[in-house]
Amino acid sequence: MSENPNSTQVTISKSFYDKMKQVSQRLGEAVSDRAIEIVSNAVDISPVDTGAFVESWQVNPRGDRTARSRSSAGRPRLPEGAKQAKREEEKARLIGRIESLDTENLDGLTITNRAPHIGFMNNNDRIKEPYKKPNDIFGVIRATLRDKYT
Q: Which stretches of the chain are DSSP H helices?
């Protein structure tokens, strides 16, 4: 029997599937790494007075509407020395959340902040530059992250 000169055969071996799995794993790791970088920057540029705003950052799989909202009402102001420690604590929480997710199989991540006092922060004279320009703290954070990552 002679071969048909118009036919084509493609063989896909197990090693191909192994390589595709490696690519998928590396892609998931890259997504995690980028998400960690983004939340770290978001926390670093967030103002800290009582700590409630940085505690309100949340990372969820895309489509998960779970929100985190911490109020500053009744909370004492943090001393200057404790503000960076609060940022580091919240970064560790967010990084732990990212690392707990199966980013290889997710359709994406969302990073949200539902602090109920954002409006107050925008109109508070205690808030110093660069957080008060243009009178929209969350907008400044969003614009900074957008400019850096898109």
A: 14-44, 52-55, 80-100, 118-122, 137-149
* Nearest residue to 45 via CA among 66, 108, 116, 149: 149
Give the domain ranges of the chain.
24-119
Contact 62, 106 (CB under 8 A): yes
Q: At what angle do helices 14-44 and 137-149 cross, to 10 degrees?
A: 140
Closest CA to 111 of 73, 146, 71, 147: 146
Q: Using the structure block, give the residue that is written with the tokens 């940022």.
A: 87
CA distance linking residue 129 with residue 99, whole number of Å: 33
- Encoded amino acid at 21, one letter: K
Rounded-to-integer distance, Cα 112 and Cα 54, Å: 11
> Mind listing the pLDDT tens digit for each residue in 51-98?
999 999 999 999 998 888 898 889 999 999 999 999 999 999 999 999
